[in-house]
């Protein structure tokens, strides 16, 4: 069992690692990374070349490039997770009778302004009056349904709360939906132990450039680590290292 202090230390360590990565690398850098190979059938070794100092002035000087170790499962899982987050419409089930929702005026306004986002989350609402002359109130017509996840009114309340702080029109998901997508993403992703071709490794790395947060998987595990700095060898020369000396290394 992990103590509270140890857990807090792990979170701080992870946040520090993410901050360091964000300073060393930009998301656009994933588009130009060179794939070196696969290590231990679980990690992609990639090289980020740096322009030598003085290159723009025509004076070639030596510099160092960065090597990164990318977790093939965590990276692919994060790509699949964010794709599910933005594109999936959760199935809904119609209620036998519309249910009047006891919402504050502010929540009613948020709900009526974001009906499409609610619909993609499986909640369908409509404005109805319960009696002639009474003002229209928000009624629930349908709610999300899933084989393994049970949704309820608390999930709708969470969505309304998230919408308060989200930019207009941005997709939000309740905790249960995020957990459901994380589980689906895990099952459909490249696994640790899967041998990958250079093309497959390239695809995983290029996808990271498209992510909102490429630095960790849905479960919080880091997707990559800075491995080392290596000489650029006159700026453009190809890296020459006997990777077989490290064992468990392949470039297919």
From TrEMBL:
GO biological process, one term: mismatch repair
Domain MutL C-terminal dimerisation: 35-196
A single GO molecular function term of this UniProt record: ATP binding
Signal peptide boundaries: none
SUPFAM superfamilies: DNA mismatch repair protein MutL
GO cellular component: MutLalpha complex
Classification via PANTHER family: DNA MISMATCH REPAIR PROTEIN MLH, PMS, MUTL, MISMATCH REPAIR ENDONUCLEASE PMS2
Listed name of the protein: MutL C-terminal dimerisation domain-containing protein
Organism: Tulasnella calospora MUT 4182
């Amino acid at each position: 069992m992990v103590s509270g202090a140890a857990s807090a230390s792990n979170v701080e360590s992870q946040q520090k690692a993410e901050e360091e990565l964000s300073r060393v690398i930009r998301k656009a850098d994933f588009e130009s990374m060179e794939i070196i190979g696969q290590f231990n059938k679980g990690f992609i070794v990639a090289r980020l070349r740096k322009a030598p100092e003085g290159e723009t002035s025509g004076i070639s000087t030596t510099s160092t490039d960065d090597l990164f170790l990318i977790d093939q499962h965590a990276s692919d899982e994060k790509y699949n997770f964010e794709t599910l987050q933005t594109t999936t419409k959760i199935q809904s089930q119609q209620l036998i009778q519309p249910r009047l929702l006891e919402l504050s005026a502010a929540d009613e306004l948020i709900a009526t302004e974001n009906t499409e986002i609610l619909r993609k989350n499986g909640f369908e609402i409509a404005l109805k009056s319960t009696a002639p002359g009474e003002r229209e109130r928000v009624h629930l017509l349908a709610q999300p349904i899933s084989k393994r996840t049970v949704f309820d009114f608390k999930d709708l309340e969470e969505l309304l709360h998230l919408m308060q702080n989200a930019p207009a029109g941005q997709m939000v998901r309740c905790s249960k939906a995020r957990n459901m997508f994380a589980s689906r993403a895990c099952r459909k992703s490249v696994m640790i132990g899967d041998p990958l071709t250079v093309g497959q490794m390239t695809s995983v790395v290029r996808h990271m450039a498209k992510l909102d947060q490429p630095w960790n998987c849905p479960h919080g595990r880091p997707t990559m680590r800075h491995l080392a700095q290596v000489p650029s060898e006159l700026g453009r020369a190809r890296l020459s290292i006997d990777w077989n000396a490290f064992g468990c290394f392949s470039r297919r």
